[in-house]
Specification:
The protein is an alpha/beta fold. Among the domains are: 267 residues, Rossmann fold (3-Layer(aba) Sandwich); 172 residues, ANL, C-terminal domain (GMP Synthetase, Chain A, domain 3, 2-Layer Sandwich). Helix content is 39%, strand content 21%. The protein has 21 helices and 28 strands. It has a five-stranded parallel sheet, sandwiched between helices. Helix 2 crosses helix 6, helix 4 crosses helix 5 and helix 8 crosses helix 9. The longest helix has 22 residues. The chain starts with a helix and ends in an 11-residue tail after the last strand. 48% of the residues are buried.
Length: 648
């Protein structure tokens, strides 16, 4: 599909002008923007930006949640041959300095007062940032800063300009070529400064079209856009595929109303990282624990049926007459109402990616009739590398290579990818580009994995993180920290895990409890607590976590490759790991090296045999203030198991 995003927009506006393109919930009411409305809005913004001096090839940052006018702004920039650079709306001001300076950004279009304040705060460090436009004017009436203006005013100026220069917009759109740069996404790297991943119209549209064909997406589908637009996954699902397939994108009122809005929209195409699916299930299980005896018994009885035959049924296989009858009854009394309660009653295709999803969690959703599948990709590959076909969804793989993709393994077991969706380059970073893109076009993913007998790709861990146990009974055994961490995160009581063991004689982990799930568990047992830190250090909570750790150890003992990665000692952290404190990336990936330095005293306690350790940690609050939290943490041993020999 050789085209550009603005041309796709104009095609929809011409062929189906009155069809809904986007909806936005405002003050509790869904407002619809048609394709014709969107095209007119994009033209007005483009003409306004042209008049303000935005140049072809120039970068423009866009910061905010999913909003039709911010999507229109990205299309307007692309219409002029400029390059939108979405940044994370929850990033603090200091995190925006490098991307803005690296990309020589003069123009910023932001959502609201919070984002305006960030831009003004860093302006002295970004002297070239001369134009700041805001979408939501609330709280900004008395702001008087040079170059600061309302997007509404820019649109008005653009409309007036367009009436005089009637052909400028079309002429600008026609100048763009499919191989022109369409967008740049800054990776939330676990070390060092983020890198600007440069993508063309071709790379993004090609992968969006492949995904759309794979899952038969049409203009009749609906999605809910609730994840950060700065993340390429959200950008593909709610921007690239939106313009390719022409479906309706729904923007929630706020982050707090996503669950309600999900139920109201009833999307047919849905994406969420595993932690969102975990959160939805945790909410269901908490409510079920509080339900009456009869309702609880019915729920568990029908869920037993679903667990036993649901995934088989979802895979298109026969489950027999009696089980079909039981499942049909379960669908009436439990599964249907449950899907409706989750807001997933109309979902035809649901995807998860980013982290491994627990087999039990994966099976739960498929067992109640939700077509949940996994995919594999990255910012550098424009997301789609592997997809799971219907009837071939498995928790332990990430699917088969999708159309146009070749995969091979290096001698070290690293996954190498060749695809039409590969990045053009890392912006102003030829050395980093050369590291990941070989001269013959293979992209080095940095992931370790293999293709199984059925042609599905399995991911073990990051290549750099795969290590070896040194010394002790498991000397030389493979250690895959992410694999171990994900196995623990399969339990609803555990939100985050950091595992260590490379070049050490045993594996130790630091755990974050899920405050909501464990809090509810504690309340049902009349266990009082005075906040996260207090709850995390309760002996009863340690016992709960120990049971989870030992279940993982029993499971690992049956894995010939990773039996030596069983966990010997653990502790429960006194605070939640947070991106604002530098412990997680903005896409919630653990920054293991940073955490090792920050919590070195705790790692020493784990490996030196101590049974407790005092620690005081500085934290950053949402309003920018800093404080500290301290506690004496318990350190516990966990039972490990002898490796189970595979049957001959």
């Amino acid at each position: 599909m050789q085209t550009t995003f603005p041309r796709l927009l104009l095609e929809h506006a011409k062929s189906r002008p009155t069809a809904a393109a986007m909806r936005e919930k405002e003050y509790g009411i869904w407002q619809t923007t048609t394709w014709a409305d969107m095209a007119q809005l994009v033209e007005a913004v483009a003409c306004g930006l042209h008049q303000a001096g935005l140049q072809r090839g120039e970068h423009m940052v866009v910061i905010g949640a999913n909003r039709p006018r911010l999507y229109a702004t990205m299309l307007a920039a692309q219409s002029l041959g400029a390059i939108p650079v979405p940044l994370y709306q929850d990033a603090v001001g200091a995190e925006c300095v490098f991307p803005i300076n690296n990309a020589d950004v003069r123009f910023a279009v932001v959502e609201d007062q919070e984002q305006v304040d960030k831009m003004l705060e860093i302006r002295d460090r970004c002297p070239q940032l001369s134009h700041i436009y805001y979408d939501d004017p609330r709280g900004l009436r008395n702001y008087d800063q040079p170059g600061l203006g309302a997007l509404e005013e820019l649109i008005g100026a653009g409309q007036a300009f367009a009436k005089i220069h009637t052909q400028l917009f079309i002429e600008q759109v026609e100048m763009a070529q499919p191989d022109d740069v369409a967008a740049m996404f800054f990776t939330s790297g676990t070390t060092g400064n983020p890198k600007g991943v440069v993508h063309t119209h071709n790379t993004l549209i090609d992968r969006a079209a492949v995904g759309a064909r794979f899952d038969k997406l049409t203009e009749n589908d609906e999605v809910l856009a609730y994840l950060p637009p700065a993340w390429i996954g959200q950008n593909i699902f709610s921007y690239a595929q939106w313009l390719v397939a022409g479906y309706v994108v729904n923007c929630p009122e706020s982050g707090a109303t996503v669950t309600i809005d999900l139920k109201e929209v009833g999307p047919t195409y849905y994406f969420a990282p595993p932690r969102v699916f975990e959160g939805l299930l945790t909410t269901v299980m908490i409510r079920m624990e509080d339900a009456g005896t009869l309702k609880r018994k019915m729920f568990h009885a029908f869920m037993d049926v679903a667990r036993r035959v649901g995934p088989t049924r979802m895979d298109g296989k026969s489950i027999g007459f009696m089980d079909s009858l039981k499942y049909a009854l379960g669908n009436v009394f439990v599964y249907g109402p449950l899907r409706n309660s989750l807001g997933l009653s109309r979902v035809r295709v649901a995807y998860t990616a980013g982290e491994a999803i627990g087999p039990d969690l994966f099976s739960f959703y498929r067992s109640i009739g939700i077509n949940l599948k996994q995919l594999y990709g990255s910012t550098e590959t424009a997301v789609f590398v592997c997809l799971q076909p219907d009837h071939e969804a498995r928790a332990d793989t990430v699917g088969v290579p999708c159309e146009g993709v070749e995969i091979k393994l290096s001698e070290t077991g690293e996954i190498l990818v060749k695809s039409p969706g590969l990045l053009k380059e890392y912006y102003k970073n030829p050395a980093a580009t050369a590291e990941v893109l070989s001269a013959d076009g293979w992209y080095h993913t940095s992931d370790a994995g293999f293709i199984d007998a059925s042609g599905h790709l399995k991911i073990i861990d990051r290549v750099k993180d795969v290590g070896r146990i040194k010394g002790g009974a498991n000397d030389g055994a493979m250690f895959a920290p992410k694999y171990v961490e994900n196995k623990l995160k399969f339990f609803s009581q555990i939100k985050e895990v950091v595992a260590y063991g490379d070049q050490r004689e045993k594996v130790c982990v630091m755990v974050n409890i899920d405050f909501e799930a464990v809090g509810n568990w504690a309340e049902r047992r009349n266990l009082p607590y005075a906040g996260y830190t207090d709850l995390a250090q309760k002996p009863e909570v340690y016992e709960l976590i120990r049971e989870c750790v030992e279940k993982v150890n029993a499971d690992l003992s049956r894995d010939e490759l990773l039996a030596g990665s069983q966990i010997s000692r653990f502790l429960v952290l006194h605070k939640e790991l947070d991106a604002d404190d530098g412990e997680l990336t903005r896409t919630n990936k653990v920054r293991r090296g940073f955490i090792a330095d920050k919590y070195s005293v705790l790692i020493d306690a784990l490996y030196s045999g101590k049974t407790e350790q005092y620690i005081e940690t500085q934290v950053k609050f949402e309003d920018g203030r800093t404080g500290s939290v301290s506690a004496t943490l318990q350190v516990r041993d966990a039972k490990t198991f002898a490796p189970v020999k595979a049957a001959a």
